Amino acid sequence: MPLSNTAKSDLLLLVVTLLAAISWMFSREAVSMMPPLMFISVRFLLGGLVLGLAGVRELSALTREQVLRAARVGLVFGLAMSCWINGLFRIDHVGEGSFLTSLNVVLVPLIARVLFSEAQPGSTWVALPVAGTGLALLSLENGFRPEPGQLFFVTAAALFALYYNLNTRAANARTVTGRDGVNREEHIPVIALTSVVLLTVGLFTGVLSAVLEPWRATLSDWSLELTGWVLASTLVGTAGRFFVQTWAQSLSPHSHGVVIMILEPVWVTVFAAAWFAETMSASQFAGCTLILAALLINRWRALGRMIKGWFRGRPA
């Protein structure tokens, strides 16, 4: 029996979580051999170019206003990625970092409510204290001495939440009035938007790297191994991930990505245990469990619709 487009979309989004999780390992290996901001710059410039070649027609059709709108989204994403990579560079426990970063799922509706006056379900306000308790267990295990890496990840989570809100608004159609007084529906095509955003991140972090990080030693010591990690992270974690995610979203308007993407920190923890032999203390495990619970509470409605749809044998 052939799979429906909704089922294909869900399976592809599961692949996206695996691609994102394995990319954490590639990135961790890369930043052990080169400055973190330089790595993000190279990774995103290459990823943006790959997607740009795939969507050259969409890119050439963008207006100046659309490019500027996408670039503004990219600047926020660039700040978020700068914090994320510095957190990954400094933290001792990759799995813990992935759960801290996943707090952005809880913060997305909060920022939507505060900045854009969007009404939110009651589950959002239940999830926030649960997530806060989990964060406390992770960061206060030895008293109030949160590590710099943890602070970078929490800051990145907040910036990612802002980026997701801005990116959604850039990708969705909106009514604009042209100089001729005619109203038109305008949106930025997904591949073109993603390409401009990735290139903006690469340029932004490249400037930061040039100002804050030493380049000479890195360029002279560039190795074949480092090239492999950079290319793996670029092709798998950036261009590959975004391509599969875009493909999945194009298959069905009933995508349950907000639920399925919750699996990413779980996969990161599993991969980190196998890759770096990481283990968790009881306090860390309890904190990560509470954060996962908060993510599930926050997406409870979508989870319920997905389960009902599967049982009924049709899209929820």
Shape descriptor = globular
Q: Number of DSSP helices?
A: 15
* N-to-C span: 19 Å
Structural class: mainly alpha
Run of helices and strands? HHHHHHHHEEHHHHHHH
Counted up, domains total 1
* Sheet with most strands: 2 strands, antiparallel
Alpha-carbon Rg, integer: 20 Å
Largest beta sheet: strand ordering: 1-2
Helix content: over 70%
Query: Roughly what fraction of the amino acids lie in strands?
Result: under 5%
Regions with pLDDT < 50 over 5+ consecutive residues? Answer: none
User: What is the average per-residue confidence, as pLDDT, rounded to a whole number?
Assistant: 82
Can you describe what's shown?
By secondary structure, the chain is mainly alpha-helical. The protein has one domain. The chain contains 15 helices and 2 strands. Strands 1-2 form a two-stranded antiparallel sheet. Strand 1 and strand 2 form a beta hairpin. Helix 1 packs across helix 13.
